[in-house]
Design goal:
mainly beta; about 725 residues; disordered N terminus; globular
C-alpha cells in the first residue's frame, strides 16, 4: 500500500472509529446529574448565538440556504456543494468541479468557513472537499465585506454544521441512477453527558465524474469519491465550550476522451511508434485528489466579551497521471504532475460590548503553508523546420524534471466598531491589515465601512465600501524555468514569465430589500469593483491543474434582483443578475498565452473567460400529504468564447436553460420507521448545452452539461 493510501486509510479509520465510539455513547441521551437536558440545550443555543455574532455580515449582501432548502432542490443532499450554491444570486454556472463557481463573475477567490473557522484552500481541481450532507445552514456573503473577511473576498461560504443535540438520530441512504451512479451515505448525531457529536460519510461511484468534451455518452469518465466529516463538542461551563472537527476527502477521476483529435504538428513518430497509430478516443489519463483537515476550537461567551480561538490544519494533494506517449502525441508534452499543500494556522476572534451603542470586534489570523510541486515532462527535441517554418521534431523522447517547494506565511489582524448611531441606523466601520510572504510579498491596510438603515419595518437599505488585498493561492503558483523547454515540442509560445502579483481592489456596494407582502421579499443590489493586478486562473496544457496570472487592471460591475416567497407549504425563490467583468494587459505568466492574444489584451479591455452577462436561477416546492414536489431552473447567456474572426473572448457559447424536477415522499411507518423515497430528473428538456468552449483565454477543453438523467433514492431514519 502506498504512503498516500495508508495516510488516507488511517484518517478515515480514525473518523469511523470516533464516530462509532460516539454512536455507542449516544443512546440513551442522558444529561449530567447536575444539569437538566433543558439547561444544556439553552446553553448550547446561547453559545451558538455568541459564536455567530462574533462574525456578523453587517451591510454585506447575504443569501441563506437552509438544510430544508437543500433537501428541497432536486437531488437534495446528493448534489455537490457547488450545485447547491447555484441557488444563490449572481453565481455563474461553470463546470461543476472545484473551479465551477463564479460569484459575481470572479474566478475562484471564494473562502469557505465551517462554524466560523476558515478552511484553507489546498490543492484540488475536480474534487470538492466538502459535501452538503453535514450542512445545517449555509450563507453566501458577498459585496462590500466587513473587516473580519479578508484574503478571499469574492464570496464567503459560511457553513454552520448540523448538530446532534438538535437533530438526534441518523439516516442511511442509497441513491443512484443514470451514468451508473451509485451513492450510499450515512449520518448520525446525538448527545450525552454534555458531549454533542455529528458524523457523516458518503461514497460516490459514477461514469460521469467530469463534464465531457462531447454531447454523446462520456468516454473514459469514471470517478470514485468519498467524503467524511465528524464534529464533537463539550460544554465545560455555562459560558464556554471546546469543539473539534475532522474532515476527509479522497477521489480519483478518469479524464474523459475526445475522439478524432489531430496529433501534434511536426511529430512523425514516438519511440518507434508512428504518430498515426495514436487514437484520442483511447487515451488513459487520470487524476487523484485528496484532502484531510482538522480544527480544534475554544469558545467563551461572557456578559460583555465573547471570543473563539481555533487551531486548524489541512493536508491536500493532487496527482495527474498522463497517458505517457498518448499525451505527447496530441499535446506535444506528457507531464506527470503532482502537488501537495500542508497548511497550519491560528484564528482568534472576539466581540466586546463596549456600550449599548458600540460593539467592538477584533481578530488575528496566522497561517503557514508548505507546498511541493513535482513535474516530469516527456518531450521531443526539435531537429529542424519545414519549408513553412513550422518545427519538425525527433522521434526519441527526452525527460525534463521540474520540482519546486516553498513555504509561505499570511498574517492578518482587524478591528471594527458596530455603532448604532440612531435606532434605525447602524454603521460598521474599521479595517484590517494583511501581510503575505510567499511567491509574492506585500501588505495592505484595508479600510471598510458599511451602513444599514431600517427605513421602515419592512424596508432595509445597505451601502458599503471595502478595500481588498488578495494574494495568489500559494499552492497554484507555477515557478518553473522555461529554458529547458526551448527547442522542444513543449516550447512555450512566449518566453516572458513575469512574476505573479498580489491583487489590490476597491469595492462599492449598495442595495435594499423590501417585504412587499407577508412572506414575499424583493431585494435589489448594485456593485462595482476596480482592481489592479486582477487575479485570474487558467488551465494550460494537459495537466488538469490551475495556474494563476494577472491582468494589469480590471473592473467588475453588476446588478442583482432577488425574490423569495413562502406561504404555508409552498416556497419560491428567483434570482436575476446582469453583470460584466473586463480586464486589460496580461502582466504575469505570459508564456501560457498566444503572442497575438497578449498583444491585443495589452491595449484593449477584454471580457474575462468566465464573465457571463446574464445569470438566472429559480425554484419552487410544495409539500402535500408528505409528498414534496420541487422544480428548479438554471439559465444564462453563456460563458465567453472566441469565434472565428472575433477578438479574444468577444463571443459567448449558446445561452442555456436547465430544468430539474424532484419528487419525494416520506412514509412514517414503513418498515418500522420513517422512510423517504425520492425521484429526480436532471435536465428535463434534455438540453445538452456547451458550458464552456476551448477557445477562451485560460481554457483548454470544451465541456458539456449532462443529458437528461434519472435518479432515485431511499433513506431510512433511525
Amino acid at each position: 500500500m502506498s504512503v498516500r493510501k495508508l495516510r488516507l486509510s488511517l484518517v478515515a479509520g480514525a473518523i469511523v472509529s470516533a464516530a462509532g465510539t460516539a454512536l455507542a455513547q449516544s443512546a440513551p441521551v442522558v444529561p449530567p446529574p447536575d444539569q437538566p437536558l433543558e439547561e444544556i440545550v439553552v446553553t448550547a443555543k446561547r453559545l451558538d448565538t455568541a459564536r455567530i455574532n462574533i462574525e456578523p455580515s453587517i451591510g454585506a449582501s447575504t443569501y441563506t440556504i437552509t438544510q430544508r432548502a437543500i433537501e428541497t432542490i432536486p437531488g437534495g443532499a446528493n448534489n455537490s456543494l457547488n450545485q447547491v450554491i447555484l441557488q444563490a444570486p449572481g453565481v455563474d454556472q461553470d463546470t461543476l468541479d472545484n473551479s465551477g463557481l463564479h460569484v459575481r463573475n470572479e474566478h475562484l477567490n471564494v473562502q469557505y468557513r465551517i462554524n466560523d473557522v476558515i478552511l484553507p484552500d489546498g490543492v484540488s481541481f475536480f474534487g470538492q472537499t466538502l459535501s452538503p450532507r453535514f450542512v445545517g445552514s449555509m450563507k453566501l456573503i458577498t459585496g462590500a465585506l466587513p473587516a473580519e473577511y479578508g484574503l478571499r473576498t469574492a464570496g464567503i461560504v459560511d457553513i454552520q454544521s448540523r448538530s446532534g443535540l438538535s437533530e438526534p438520530g441518523g439516516d442511511i441512504s442509497l441513491y443512484g441512477g443514470s451514468y451508473g451512479t451509485f451513492n450510499p451515505s450515512i449520518d448520525y448525531g446525538g448527545s450525552a453527558d454534555g458531549y454533542t457529536f455529528f458524523a457523516s460519510v458518503d461514497y460516490l461511484d459514477t461514469d460521469r465524474g467530469v463534464e465531457p468534451p462531447t454531447t454523446s455518452n462520456p468516454i473514459h469518465d469514471h470517478s470514485e469519491q468519498t467524503h467524511g466529516f465528524f464534529y464533537l463538542d463539550k460544554i465545560i461551563s455555562d459560558s464556554s465550550r471546546v469543539s473539534a472537527m475532522i474532515g476527509t476527502f479522497t477521489s480519483q477521476f478518469q479524464i474523459p476522451n475526445n475522439p478524432g483529435q489531430p496529433t501534434f504538428g511536426g511529430i512523425s513518430a514516438i519511440n518507434g511508434t508512428p504518430a498515426t497509430a495514436f487514437n484520442s478516443a483511447n487515451l488513459n489519463e487520470h487524476q487523484t485528489e485528496g484532502s484531510q483537515f482538522g480544527v480544534l476550537s475554544y469558545l467563551y461567551a461572557g456578559q460583555d466579551l465573547d471570543f473563539q480561538a481555533s487551531a486548524f490544519t489541512k493536508f491536500s494533494d493532487l496527482h495527474y497521471h498522463p497517458d505517457q506517449l498518448g499525451d505527447l502525441a496530441f499535446n506535444g508534452v506528457s507531464q506527470n504532475a503532482g502537488r501537495t499543500s500542508f497548511v497550519n494556522g491560528f484564528q482568534g476572534e472576539g466581540t466586546y460590548h463596549l456600550t449599548d451603542d458600540h460593539t467592538v470586534r477584533f481578530g488575528v489570523l496566522v497561517t503557514g503553508e508548505h507546498i511541493t510541486s513535482d513535474t516530469t515532462s516527456l518531450v521531443l527535441p526539435q531537429i529542424g523546420a519545414d519549408v513553412a517554418g513550422d518545427p519538425i521534431f525527433g522521434t526519441r523522447t527526452r525527460s525534463l524534471i521540474s520540482d519546486a517547494e516553498k513555504t509561505g506565511w499570511n498574517y492578518g489582524a482587524y478591528l471594527q466598531d458596530e455603532w448604532k448611531i440612531l435606532p434605525t441606523v447602524t454603521i460598521n466601520f474599521g479595517g484590517r491589515f494583511d501581510v503575505v510572504n510567499g511567491y509574492t510579498e506585500g501588505n495592505q491596510v484595508s479600510p471598510r465601512i458599511n451602513i444599514v438603515w431600517q427605513a421602515t419595518p419592512s424596508t432595509t437599505v445597505h451601502a458599503g465600501y471595502a478595500s481588498y488585498f488578495t494574494p495568489p493561492p500559494l499552492e497554484l503558483v507555477a515557478n518553473q524555468s522555461l529554458i529547458p523547454f526551448q527547442k522542444t515540442s513543449a516550447a512555450p509560445a512566449s518566453t516572458v514569465n513575469s512574476a505573479i502579483k498580489n491583487e489590490h481592489a476597491q469595492y462599492l456596494d449598495i442595495g435594499a430589500s423590501q417585504d412587499v407582502l407577508p412572506g414575499l421579499t424583493i431585494g435589489l443590489d448594485l456593485y462595482y469593483k476596480y482592481a489592479r493586478n486582477l487575479l485570474d486562473e487558467g488551465q494550460f496544457g494537459a495537466p488538469v491543474i490551475l495556474t494563476p496570472f494577472n491582468y494589469n487592471v480590471g473592473y467588475n460591475r453588476g446588478v442583482e434582483l432577488t425574490t423569495t416567497y413562502r406561504s404555508g407549504n409552498f416556497s419560491y425563490y428567483g434570482n436575476l443578475a446582469i453583470a460584466e467583468q473586463k480586464a486589460e494587459g496580461i502582466n504575469s505568466a505570459q508564456f501560457s498565452f498566444d503572442p497575438a492574444d497578449l498583444l491585443y489584451a495589452s491595449g484593449h479591455l477584454i471580457n474575462t473567460d468566465h464573465s457571463q452577462r446574464m445569470t438566472a436561477s429559480a425554484g419552487m416546492s410544495y409539500l402535500s400529504d408528505g409528498t414534496l414536489y420541487s422544480v428548479d431552473i438554471l439559465a444564462g447567456t453563456g460563458l465567453r468564447t472566441t469565434n472565428p474572426g472575433d477578438n479574444i473572448n468577444e463571443g459567448t457559447v449558446p445561452s442555456y436553460e436547465q430544468v430539474n424536477l424532484g419528487l419525494s415522499h416520506q412514509f412514517d411507518y414503513l418498515l418500522g420507521g420513517p422512510t423517504k423515497v425520492r425521484f429526480d430528473v436532471i435536465n428535463l428538456l434534455d438540453e445538452q448545452y456547451l458550458i464552456r468552449s476551448s477557445t477562451g483565454i485560460g481554457v483548454f477543453a470544451s465541456q458539456y452539461a449532462p443529458a437528461r438523467s434519472f435518479y432515485a433514492g431511499v433513506s431510512r431514519s433511525f
